UniProtKB/TrEMBL annotation:
Organism of provenance: Dendrobium nobile (Orchid)
Lineage, highest ranks first: Eukaryota, Viridiplantae, Streptophyta, Embryophyta, Tracheophyta
Segments forming domain DUF4283: 67-142
Protein's recorded name: DUF4283 domain-containing protein
Pfam families from the UniProt entry: DUF4283 (PF14111)
Regions annotated as coiled coil: none
Residues spanning the signal sequence: none
Region described as Disordered: spans on this chain: 1-34
Length: 142
């Protein structure tokens, strides 16, 4: 039994010419509908650019009403590892002696939205600067 193979048993290596660019590929034919597809599918245009976002106009009146809704809110940012929602809410209620109530909304990353029921609680939390909650700095922003 012969274990060695001759060079003729292998296909030839492809050699590239320096400076030659690879052949251009027709991506529409690769990802578009087949030529035998109905005309409605042939009207499909592929683009890597998203369509323009729909612009929703706001009047000054609507903006001022929205500002009133968010006037008792602060944005909180936890530096370091993200705290668990329940643990942070408990720490806020325990640390702050509140006259009213708060609602906590968890946003992306380490951000939280805190909504106060009374302006005195908001001013107390805002005026004291950075808080240390659960052993980590918690920064507030209006």
């Amino acid at each position: 039994m012969e274990s060695s193979s001759a060079l003729e048993d292998f296909p030839p290596l492809v050699t590239s010419v320096r400076g030659a660019s690879p052949p251009q590929r027709n991506w529409l034919s690769a990802f578009g509908p087949p030529e035998s597809a109905p005309a409605s599918l042939n009207d499909l245009h592929l683009s890597n650019f998203p369509s323009e976002p729909e612009i929703i106009p706001f009047s000054g009146d609507k903006l001022s009403k929205g500002a009133d809704d968010w006037s008792l809110c602060l944005m909180g940012y936890s530096i370091g590892r993200r705290p668990f929602y329940e643990a942070l809410l408990g720490a806020l209620k325990k640390t702050w002696s509140l006259k009213g109530s708060i609602k906590l909304l968890s946003l992306s990353e380490e951000f939280f939205l805190i909504r106060f029921s009374c302006s005195e609680d908001l001013e107390m939390a805002w005026s004291r600067g950075v808080w240390f909650l659960l052993g980590k700095p918690f920064v507030l922003q209006k």
